[in-house]
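Field reference: "sequence" (input) and "structure" (output). Example, ferroxidase:
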Amino acid sequence: MGTRILLIGRLPSALLRPLCTKGTASHSSSSRYSAVILQRSFDLQLEQRHSVHYLFPPMPALNCPRMLCSKALTELEFDDLAENTLTSIGDYLDGFTEWLPVDADFDISYAMGVLTIKLGGGRGTYVINKQSPNKQLWLSSPVSGPKRYDYIHGQWVYGHDGVALHDLLNEEFRKLFETDRIDFNQNRDD
């Protein structure tokens, strides 16, 4: 049986599911090329039916958050950056008791890559931890919920909204403690 070749070029934008968040990729590049999800689907068909081959146009590097790093981090670089970030956030929070009225049950603990921040007074608990396999920092916030941060251009950034970890902490802690004096960026060490 002969081999059939199906060429896939420009696909209607209705068939494409955006892989990048708004503002991280040009609209024309996502509508001009087949999406990775569709490519995987066709590749699966190729594996199941060896007589059909699918050819795709070369896909440009989309500006997806995981691809924005200036370079791929090694495990050692990630561990150093994550450790420095978590330590500097913990150190900054430890100083809160000196200049900010906090409840008696306010507590900061850091162990084995997990920073736990118990705010007390019904404000909730934050957890920030290293995820070495993904080279991410994960945040659990009582205000905004869970988020995963990638190290992009010198800061930890949440790919879905482009907000840096330190900026989110500033916004939420300022609201929770009703002061503009909180600034996690002044103590950044990442």
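The two ends are 59 Å apart (CA to CA).
DSSP finds five helices and eight strands in the chain.
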